[in-house]
Amino acid sequence: MTPFDLSTLYAATEAAPPPVDPFFLEATDGIKLAVRVYMPPSSAPTRASMIFYHGGGAHSGAGYQLLAQQLASVHGIQVYQPDLRGHGKSEGDRGDSPSVEQVYQDIDTVVSHVRKQQEHSENENVPLFLGGHSSGAGLVIQYATAHDRSVVDQHKLAGFVLLSPQLGPNAGVSTDGSSASAFCKVSIMPFIFNGIFGCMGHSPAVKFQYSEKELAGGNVPYNTVNMANAISPTAPAKQLKEMEDCYNKLPMKLWMGEHDELFDAQKVQALYPPTSIVPNETHIGILAHADAILGPWLDEQLQS
After folding, report:
1. What value does the mean pLDDT of the chain take?
2. What is the C-alpha to C-alpha distance for residues 295 and 282, in angstroms, rounded to an integer?
3. What angle do CA 269, 271, 277 make, to 5 degrees?
4. Is residue 205 part of a domain?
5. b/e per residue 127-159 (b: at least 16 CB within 10 A)
6. Of 97, 98, 175, 238, which sits most exposed with the smallest number of CB within 10 A?
7. What is the reported pLDDT for 1?
8. Pick from 189, 167, 193, 195: which is nearest to 180 by CA?
9. Model confidence at 4, in pLDDT bands (50, 70, 90)?
């Protein structure tokens, strides 16, 4: 059972429209990637687009629709929410990837699709942001710093949005309590053996403590070594600095909930001083108010 108080998120989800049905994109290895897209009202212009990735073991329909619905309706942001391969409605072995690089290529697939859609619409010149929550934000950091830089440059992204990011085991920002271990249990040996012999990439390594209801709803029970490595920064302070210094000084924003159960917001701010700590918010509960947190910052970027 997870340590989170999900009541706020569940109540907000029940009061909001359900997630839209996904469409499917073919990845470079042929599997189908599920993507949900939320459009601004037809009477309002699309001011920007954003691709936003879900957290560890979850999927785009597990509360993330709240963020997308509000950013679309209130702020004019077209929001694409992919399910990682092996998660939610995407194809692929559950919680796994053929390689770390394949996960980054999947992002390229989604970005390329969005760009093609923009080219054939009146939204051709609107900015495109890349963001994520928790491990989804960790994935964004990895993608921007560990993937082929020339490929990322070609996408001409407008900025990065990091909400309650999972910064990897080397960050030293975990809470002092037992919440992290109650959420997931990490087996170290598969990572060690895979690092030495390269033979355990498909081994389950991060076991999530999701309830039966959450698993039946589309969450996955574990991530393999390959998937965990794809979404976990290895040198977060250095990588965040690299993202600031590179990509033509693209805007980047990181938010942490004051009462995040997994990561100590003060430690994250010490690691990356520009971090904004959001009062009273928790790791999952922050999704219920994410539009009010991300929206004003996105508005500011679009006005500058």
Report:
1. 93
2. 18
3. 15
4. yes
5. bbbbbbbbbbbbbbbbbbbbbeeeebeebebbb
6. 238
7. 35
8. 167
9. low
pLDDT on residue 230: 98
Q: CA-to-CA distance for 78 and 65, rounded, in angstroms? A: 12
What's CA 80's distance to the chain center, in Å?
11
Query: Residue-wise over 47-72: b if at least 16 C-beta within 10 A, else e?
Result: bbbbbbbbbbbbbbbbbbbbbbbbbb
Distance of CA 249 to the CA centre of its chain: 21
Residue 206 maps to which CATH number?
A: 3.40.50.1820
Domain that holds residue 185: 7-303
- Structurally, how many domains does the chain consist of? 1
In contact, 66 and 19? CB cutoff 8 Å: no
Q: What is the pTM of this model?
A: 0.96
DSSP label at 21? P
Q: Name the DSSP class of 97.
A: -
* pLDDT, tens digit (0-9, with 9 covering 90-100), for 66-121: 999 999 999 999 999 999 999 999 999 999 999 999 999 999 999 999 999 999 88
CA distances from 16 to 65, 132, 213 (A): 9, 21, 20
- For 51: left if phi > 0, alpha if psi spans -120 to 50, otherwise beta; the answer is beta
HSE, CB side, 13 Å, CA atoms: give it for residue 189. Answer: 0
Would you say residue 2 lies in a domain? no
